[in-house]
Design brief:
- This protein has 8 helices and 36 strands.
- It is α/β, with parallel strands linked by helices.
- The chain folds into 3 domains: 167 residues, Jelly Rolls, CATH 2.60.120; 91 residues, Immunoglobulins (Immunoglobulin-like); 285 residues, Glycosidases (TIM Barrel, Alpha-Beta Barrel).
- A 9-stranded parallel beta sheet has the order 21-34-33-31-28-27-26-25-22. Strands 3-2-4-9-6-7 form a 6-stranded antiparallel beta sheet, with no helix packed on it.
- The protein starts with a helix and ends with a helix.
- It binds alpha-D-glucopyranuronic acid.
Length: 594
């Protein structure tokens, strides 16, 4: 009886989830490359109401009513200014720790045009978002790090339009990430908001990358959204002498394969080509790089040549201002810090970071491991959570599939080995490959067996992956069982491993002897990096490293009031960007690998 009920319950949950994610009120499939289109930015000063007791829906705040006669009163009003994009925690000291609901309002003028369609596009909002236009609900979106859009063609009014958005950042067991993640829960509309105008039949999506394993053959497709299925799409890459005409089918798709003699993208020469897609009604442009990435035995091959990934992890945060990174200048600050370290690779922990950062990383010659925030304690038996995880994976790939700098999609971080987990993540790896067969699929593991000074790497899920990450804090969370240089790693997986996390904490300016971790001193962290590098040199199947972490970052889980006080101090750089001694150790190591 029990198992029957469980089966019934899980099927019911899947049905509920399908309604939730595919109902007209949930965000539609957002269009590719919003910045390459006819957009009007809604960034700037919005007005907000902090909904302390979550009464907004009961009060119908989305109607933004005004008292009409002296005897009437309305118990809410939008007066407090709030910048968009930004997190609210860093904008108002009362909201520093706020995890809850905030209502945003923005008015804009518009003119309805025959034959045109209008969309409202959000780069991201953390975590649960409801969107209303002129008092009418457009829909909702769940997830803090991926885009969503709503078509507003019919809801748009000539003249003034009132956009009202509620964002709720409360952590929940069934959210992704769930409850106790090790980074700050910045809430709000944290990325750009735009109005996008398109023709009636518009180029909604496209995928233009080299075919898996090829260095000169492109396998592309284009999707046109609209009723006119006679549309022809012109695909041109002038600098590569490409000019193709595609005819869409009844579902709006057109596919094409063609050869081209590209100068291939590499970290040293991050060559990009201007790609133009046009119909008789519109032109969409973007810069796209072309490279091949594959695994051959223990090697990762970039354009057919073995590559070693000299990386670093970072969160999407401007630590010195304790806020979410949002602008191009923010992205450049973080990415330049990685370049200064000698990196050719970054792991954008632990969620899809902003589209401007990913695009800039490609321009700067940084390969990327991008991941969804399936971070630690995930209930793999809960179909509601699994549906959300799949949705987030699809959103991440949908947004960034044309970014050749992304070489790895990662589906989870530090999940607990179990049959449910292996089944779910094996399916998600298959989904990954079906959406994008050109990239490597990975995951980061931390529950690996050690016996004496030997680490045995053979997580069951890793067999389904192209590469895998190991998070191992030798000398920090676990003491050295023996001299670092005597550590050995064994694996039957016969595939490339990336040490996706290692390191330890130090508070910048704390100095002392190198053998006392308890003082959070720079000398200990410096020795830790020297020791870990000794260990890394002993791993015959190691093909990349991403130490944890580039900058100190905010985390409510870090409670040592003397050295942490809400900061995770594993940064190679302090929150103010000051180089700790360990920074120089890693820099020298990367130099030595040239
Ligand atoms: C974990 C986790 C990180 C965390 C880090 C730490 O491995 O992946 O998100 O911040 O270790 O403990 O500092």
């Amino acid at each position: 009886m029990y198992s029957f009920n469980r089966l019934l319950l899980s099927n019911l949950a899947i049905v509920l989830l399908l309604v939730f994610t595919s109902s007209p009120t949930s965000a539609q499939n957002f269009m590719t490359n919003p910045s390459g289109r006819n957009t009007n930015s809604l960034n700037g000063t919005w007005k907000v109401i902090i909904d302390w007791y979550n009464r907004g829906n009961q009060l119908k705040i989305y109607q933004d009513r005004k008292a009409k006669k002296p005897t009437e009163f309305v118990e809410y009003s939008f007066n407090q200014p709030m910048q968009v994009p930004s997190d609210w925690n860093s904008q108002d000291p009362h909201l520093f720790m706020w995890e809850g609901n905030v209502w945003y309002k923005k008015e804009f003028t518009a003119t309805r045009k025959a034959g045109k369609r209008t969309f409202i596009y959000f780069g991201a909002a953390n975590y649960l978002t409801e969107v209303y236009l002129n008092g009418k609900k457009l829909g909702s979106h769940e997830g803090g790090f991926t885009p969503f859009q709503f078509e507003i063609t019919d809801a748009l009014q000539d003249g003034t339009n009132k956009l009202i958005v509620s964002v709720n950042s409360q952590r929940k067991e069934e959210s992704i990430p769930a409850m106790n993640y090790d980074w700050w829960n910045y809430g709000g509309i944290t990325r750009d908001v735009s109005l996008i105008e398109t023709p009636a039949n518009f180029i909604e999506d496209y995928f233009i990358q080299l075919k898996k394993g090829s260095q000169n053959e492109v396998e592309a497709w284009v999707k046109v959204n609209g009723l006119d299925k006679s549309k022809k799409v012109n695909l041109s890459i002038p600098a590569a002498g490409i000019n193709k005409v595609l005819e869409i089918d009844t579902s709006g798709y057109a596919r094409i394969t063609f050869k081209a003699d590209f100068k291939l993208w590499t970290p040293e020469t991050p060559k990009q080509y201007e790609v133009t897609l046009s119909t008789d009604e519109e032109t969409v442009k973007e810069s796209i790089g072309f490279r091949s990435i594959e695994v051959k035995g223990l090697d990762i091959l970039l354009n057919g040549k073995p590559v070693f990934l000299k990386g670093v992890n970072f969160h999407e945060e401007i630590a010195k201002e304790m806020r979410r990174a949002t602008s191009d200048a923010d992205a450049r600050l973080i990415l330049q810090s990685a370049k200064d370290l000698g990196c050719n690779f970054i792991r954008t922990a632990h969620y899809p970071q902003s589209e401007n950062l990913v695009k800039m990383a490609e321009e700067m010659g940084l390969m990327i491991w991008e991941e969804i925030p399936l971070w630690q304690g995930i209930q793999f038996g809960n179909p509601i959570i699994l549906g959300k995880a799949e949705f987030m994976l699809r959103e991440m790939i949908r947004r960034d599939k044309n970014r050749c700098s992304i070489i790895i999609w990662s589906i989870s971080n530090e999940t607990t080995p179990a049959p449910d987990r292996d089944r779910v993540l094996t399916n998600m790896a298959a989904t990954c490959r079906s959406l994008d067969p050109t990239r490597l699929v990975s995951s980061a593991f931390n529950q690996i067996k050690m016996n004496g000074n030997t680490t045995y790497v053979n997580d069951t899920l890793a067999r389904q992956l192209d590469v895998y990450g190991i998070n191992r804090y030798m000398g920090w969370y676990s003491p050295w069982p023996d001299k670092p240089g005597t550590m050995t790693f064994k694996s039957e997986l016969n595939k490339p491993m990336i040490m996706s996390e290692f390191g330890g904490e130090a508070k910048y300016g704390n100095h002392g002897n190198a053998d006392s971790a308890g003082l959070w001193n720079e000398e200990y962290q410096e020795q830790l990096y020297k020791d870990n590098i000794q260990m890394l040199k002993n791993i015959p199947f190691l093909r990349g490293i991403t130490p944890w972490v580039l900058y100190d970052f905010r985390s409510p889980t870090r409670l040592n009031s003397e050295n942490q006080f809400g900061w995770n101090r594993k940064g190679l750089l302090s929150d103010k960007g000051e180089k700790k001694k360990a920074w120089y150790v890693l820099k020298a190591f990367y130099e030595s690998l040239k």
